Amino acid sequence: MRLGLLYSGGKDSTLAALLLDEFYDVTLTTAHFGVTDDWEHARATAEAAGFAFERLQLDPGVANEAVERIREDGFPRNGIQHVHQHALERVAEEGYDAVADGTRRDDRVPTVSRAQAQSLEDRHDLDYIAPLSGFGRRAVDRLVEETLDVTVGPSEEIARADYEAELRAIIAEEDGEEAVADLFPDHEQTRVNRIHEG
Questions:
Q1: Sign of CA dihedral 107, 113, 116, 120
Q2: Which H/E stretch holds residue 127?
Q3: Contact 57, 34 (CB under 8 A)
Q4: What pLDDT was estimated at residue 13?
Q5: Containing domain of residue 112, as a range?
Q6: Distance between CA 112 and CA 133 in Å, rounded?
Q7: Residue 39 has what pLDDT?
Q8: How far apart are the C-alpha atoms of 151 and 198, rounded to whole Å?
Q9: Could you give the angle at which helices 163-175 and 77-92 cross, rounded to 10 degrees?
């Protein structure tokens, strides 16, 4: 069965791919607006791990809507959630038997509710899978420590293929770096360097 997994090149989406690989023909799919070219690292990581890789263009209008939500709210949660839902829809349109992401049990954003998952499945006649949804952060960190070599750092310093980075770039270009600092809380991101052999 063919599965499209939303892929950033970070630890969660890479771990999700490894968990699903035994059961599905996994394609790691980086959804983007074309604002940055940080997807190259995701492609290299996917290929090094032996996964097929695909770039999927998102609707630029969705990026604009997300940026407006972030400005209005004063925080990024709803804007990022809006983009994630759009990205899942776009992957679902690619004809896969299943779509997946690296969302965890403890994630505050993005999340996929039971109703959203069922709607996606019914409308596209596929399965939505969140293989990390039963894992808390500590459990994920333990599995990552055993399985992946990662770089950890502040969001603004870690080049990853995720839409948060693109939304930050749009806001920085239109409103300045200070606006990004005001709207996005400090948090760390990860980028996978390699998968441990063994």
A1: positive
A2: strand 127-129
A3: yes
A4: 95
A5: 2-195
A6: 10
A7: 84
A8: 20
A9: 130
What pLDDT is stored for residue 38 in this prediction?
78
Domain harbouring 187, CATH code? 3.40.50.620
pLDDT at 140: 94
How high is the pLDDT of residue 159? 66
The 10 Å CB-count burial string (b at 16+, else e) for 23-62 is: ebebbbbbbbbebbebbebbbebbeebebebbebebeeeb
pTM of the model: 0.93
**Residue 173 host element (H or E):** helix 163-175
Which residues of the chain fall below pLDDT 50?
A: none
Amino acid at 119: S
Q: Give the chain's length.
A: 198
